[in-house]
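The following block was generated as part of the benchmark described in Methods. Ligand: acetamide.
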Amino acid sequence: MFFCASILLAAFSVPQTSIDVIPKPSHMEVLEGSWTPDKGLGIRYDHRLEAEARGLADWLGQRLDQEVQIVREELRIKLPQEIYLDMLEEEGVPESYTMTIDANRVHILGVGAPGAFYATQTLKQVVAPDGPVVFPHCEIEDEPRFRWRGMHLDVGRHLYPVDDVKNLLTWMAFHKLNTFHWHLTEDQGWRIEIKKYPKLTSVGAFRDSTPPYGERLGSDGERYGGYYTQDEIRSIVAFAANLHITVVPEIDMPGHMLAAIAAYPELGNTDIKDYAPKVSSKWGVHRYTLSPKEETFQWVDDVLEEVCDLFPAEYIHIGGDEAPKHQWKESAFAQSVMKREGLEDENALQSYFLARVSKMLEKRGRKLTGWDEIREGGLAKGATVMVWRGWHNAVEAANQGHDVIMAPTSHTYFDYYQADGKSELAKGPWYECIGGHLILQKVYSLDPVPKELKGTPAAQHILGTQGQLWTEYAKTWEKVEYLAFPRIAALSEVAWTQPKDKDWPDFQKRLKPMLKRYTKAGIRHFDPFR
Ligand code: ACM
């Protein structure tokens, strides 16, 4: 019975002539022939690749509606049809791999477990999005352009269920993105449980109301809030690690701190007029900043202690963006610190503040990254700059020997409209965005290396790029998906594929089956072909 079914399947399956992988691999050749898995299919794996083997077996099991066995290679069990996952220890370009599909066999050779893992993500895309599972004979060699391939998510303005965050991580991995920048604190809500300071969440995680869609200065009058417990955070970090994604937490300071200051008013500039911090119910930039007092530095150190315990990432993001200087100008205490330390202005005070934070990270073996405002009064030693505004920030920082991550508003702000704003709004208030206009092709066109750095040694300081998901206008996960997909696919090709291999018409062709995959998975994506 089963024999007959396979013959029928083989007879009706159309030979595949192209393979629609995003991001596009460095080298890919489609060969004559293909094979269809049957009950004899199994995955043989190097013992260091058990998680990768299990992940692939789960996915294939669902597609084939059968259990796919995994066996360690030392057992030397002969499988009639096999996917063999093998790896090299440390030779070769990190995260690279080769994959060959020939008669009844897929052979994957990864550089490290990440390389083998990315081969499995390619293999999932080698299989067409629907219809029977067919493995076309092919040879693929692949390696990333950049080491930092990221997505950012703001959970301060709105927060989302743990399972939805994990689903985003799964799709990031599918597109070979390896860094999740988790923006955990905001004026409108503090979202990370800190055991030593319980009011950060009991007070700081809740606001009185939120502007509704279509009424950006209005109030819905409903209390809103919540946070991630340390157990939930650990589960997300572990889930990400299994997908070879590093979670970089952001604790934004000294601005964007109103929720924390509302919870512990003594952290702020208490000696100014009308000091009355309250978790914000409005969007935009707020005046409240941390005060440069010793008690505040102790609080930052304590928070970072718990943050570093939860997140094993090499980098900790300390924000640094949009910290207005009004309160430091007005505060006699802040002015006295400037005098004491010989600081000529408030920008220098910000640098002093962040240099102290940098030392707190350094003593824990971590590196500091922050938005490009951290350059304003002089950059802390060893700091990595995340550039969101002028590209000159990238050029200057790289030329000064600092690493840089490119997150420019012009190409990577996924909270901007991805079609003409008027036509989007005509569909209803749900479609409201913060503004801007960032079409898919513009995301795709990004080259993260500024032209001034091309061909210079400083170009190596550009670590990579990431997409930003600010969420003032994303009340629900469906809206996050609508903003992220398919721009995430275009970004992945910017981050992974060499510029000479990028091709916009070819990307659009490969995107069509990708949209089918999104739809089948229940993702509410934007459709750039409508
Ligand atoms: C930012 O958009 N404030 C980094």
